[in-house]
Amino acid sequence: MKTNGKGPALLRLNNQKRVMAQLRKLRVTSRQDLAEALTLSKNTVSLIIDDLLEQGLIEELGPVSAAAAGRPKIGITLRPEKLKSAGVMVERNVIHWRVCDYFSQVLAEATLRTDTRHPTRLLAELAMLCRELTERYPDLLGIGLGFPGIVDPRRGWMHISLPLEWQDVDLLTTLRKHVRLPILIMNNVKAAALLAVEQSGLSPESGHFYLRISEGIGGALVQQGQVFTGHSWTAGEAGHLVVQPEGPRCSCGRRGCLEALVSKPTVNQQLAQRQPGLSWQNRDSAPRVVDEVMTQAGGYLGAALSQIMLLLNPATIIIDCPWNVSERFCKAVRDTAHGNALAFTAAHTQLHFPETRIDPANGLALAVLEQSEQRVG
Question: What DSSP letter does each residue of 252-313 carry, written as one string?
Answer without folding.
Answer: TS-BSBTHHHHSHHHHHHHHHHHSTT--STTGGG-HHHHHHHHHHHHHHHHHHHHHHHHHH-
